[in-house]
Queue: 2 jobs
Job 1
Amino acid sequence: MDVDRCAFDVLQLNTPLVELIRETIRSQGPQSFAWFMQQALYHPEHGYYSSGRCAIGRKGDYFTNVSVGPLFGQLLAAQFSEIWERLGKMNDFVIVEQGAHDGQFARDVLEFTQKRLSEFFDALRYRILEPFPILQERQRQTLEAFGDKIDWRSSPEPFTGVHFSNELLDAMPVRLISDGTEKLVGLDGDNFVFVERPVDKTMFNQAAVESIDEIAANLQRGYVIAFDYGFLDEEFERTVQVRARHRNLDSPFEQIGDADITMSVHWRSIVERAQANGLRVAGFTDQHHFLTGIISQSESGDRGQSLLADSVKAKRELQTLLHPEMLGRAFQVLALAKNVCPETKPLAGFKFARQLGQSG
Ligand SMILES: C[S@@+](CC[C@H](N)C(=O)[O-])C[C@H]1O[C@@H](n2cnc3c(N)ncnc32)[C@H](O)[C@@H]1O
C-alpha cells in the first residue's frame, strides 16, 4: 500500500466540507448526487470552484480548450466578429461568458480583437457572469489591461450579442437516475456510499436545463455558443468523471472538494429546452469541424488574413484542438439563435457541419 497516499486520503476524509456533508446526511438522511456535487464543487466556502482551489492546465487537475493556449480564443473571436457583422455591426454588442475560470479565454479574445479586428473591438463589451468572488478577483487581475471594456455580474441581465461557455454545462449538478432508480449519497459509518431508491420519472440534469431558461430569458437578440463533451441522444452515456492532477479518480467520494466532478452533457434535452424557450438551433457539430470551418472561412475571406500564427507553438495548439484523438472529436459545439433571421449561409463554424442528429 502507498502509505503517503493513504495518509492523504485520511486527511481528505476529515476536511470541514466532508464533515459538513456527513452531518447533513446524518441529520436528514441520504441526499441526491446533485446536492452532493453542489457541495463538493460550489459550497460557498469549501467547494472546489467556489474556494478557488480549482486549477486548470498543465500544473492543475485537467486541460480544457482554453488552457491549451490562446488559439482557441482567437478562433472564437473570429466567429464572434462574424456574428457581430451579421447582426448589423451594432455598437453595443455584448459577449457574455459564463464559467470564465481565471479570465484567460476573455483575455485571448480581447487581445486578438484589439490587434486584428479593431472595428469589432471598439463596438464590443465583454461581460463575465461569475457568482464566486474569488474567481471574479482572479479574472480582474488577468483582465486588468482592458479596464472598463469588461463588466462583471453575479446573475444574468438582458443583452444583445453572444453567450459563450466552454465546459460549463458538464460542471452543473446532476442526479444519478436510471431505470426508475436514483442513487443517493448515504453513509456507512463514516464512509460515503450510494443508496438506491425508486424514483418517479424526473429530470436528472435540471440545473443545466434551467440555465438555458435563464440565458433565453436574457438574450434579446443573438446567439448562444456552448462547447462541451456529451451525446446527442440514443447513444447517451451517463458517465460521471472525477479528475484531480490529470488522473481520473475511481469515485466521487475521493478527494471531495479537491477534485473536479463532471457529467457528459445530454445535448438533446438542452436543445429541446432551448426550443421551448423560443431559441432556434443554428448548428451542432464536433469541435474539429467547427474550428476547421472558422479557419477555412478566414483564409478564403476578403481580408485574406490567416488566423494561424506561423509558430511551432500555434501548430501544436491547433493539433491538440483539432485532432480526433485529442479534443477534436471529444467535444461538441451547439449554437442557438434568437430573433435572428435563419441563416442563408451557416455561421463559419458550421460550414462543414452535418444536420443535427447525423453522426460522424
Ligand atoms: C470545467 S470549468 C471550465 C472553465 C473554463 N471555461 C475553461 O474552459 O477553462 C467550469 C467552470 O464553470 C463555472 N460555473 C459552474 N456553474 C456556474 C454558474 N452557474 N455560473 C457561472 N459559472 C459557473 C465553475 O465555477 C468553473 O469555473
Note: The radius of gyration is 21 Å.
Job 2
Amino acid sequence: MATWLNLCSLDDIPRRGSRVVPPLDGKSSVSIAVFRTADDAVFALQDACPHKGGPLSQGIVHGNKVTCPLHGWNLDLASGEACTPDVGCAKRYETRVENGVVWLEC
Ligand code: FES
C-alpha cells in the first residue's frame, strides 16, 4: 500500500518552478524535484536529467514540460520521458494536491 508524505503547501512551490526534496529512502544520492506548473499542476521527477544528470529542478518549466538547464532536453513532467528526438526517462513519483497541500508518494 502506498505511503504518502505531506510535503508542503502548494504555495511553497513557485509557479513554473520547483522545490527539491532529499532522497526518500535515505540511500539514493539523487534528490527529487517537485514542479508546479503555471496552472498549478504538480509533478515530481528525480532531480537528474537522463542525458547527463543535469539538475532538472533548475530547468525552465513550460506547459507540462521542463527544459534541462545543461543541454536543453525537454522532458514531459507527467511521464518523465524525454521529448523527441531525445530518448531517455527520468524516474517519476506520484503526487497529489488536496486542499492546498502537496503529497508525495514514498
Ligand atoms: S544533462 Fe540534461 S540535457 Fe544534458
Note: The mean pLDDT is 95.
